[in-house]
Task: structure prediction
Amino acid sequence: MTDALPPETLRAITDARVFEISWPDGKSFRVPFKLVRSECPCAQCIDEITGVRVLRPESIPDDICPVELGYSGNYALKILWSDAHSSGIFTWERLRRISELTQT
Ligand SMILES: [Zn+2]
Result:
């Protein structure tokens, strides 16, 4: 796992249901809340033994949004979601990877 630098800016735009994330290399992304929620890496969303995602994307409400953002040290973002889920830790590396998903 490489050390990813933290984003320069990260803000939630509730009207558009996206995170606007700018990275130190100058790239910025608008990443839908629902995409980030669906990529949650926690043990409830991914089977710890098999690594298979057990969270079904269709089970996520379309109006999902972050209620509270917090930091875990300086390496990750913690998100409390409107569906009361909060156990995912999004490392910068993971968040960057999720950001890149919007480019395909
Ligand atoms: Zn989760």
User: Anything to note?
Assistant: The radius of gyration is 13 Å. The CA atoms of residues 7 and 23 lie 4 Å apart. The first helix runs from residue 33 to 38. Residues 40, 42, 44-45, 85, 87-88 surround zinc ion (CB under 6 Å).
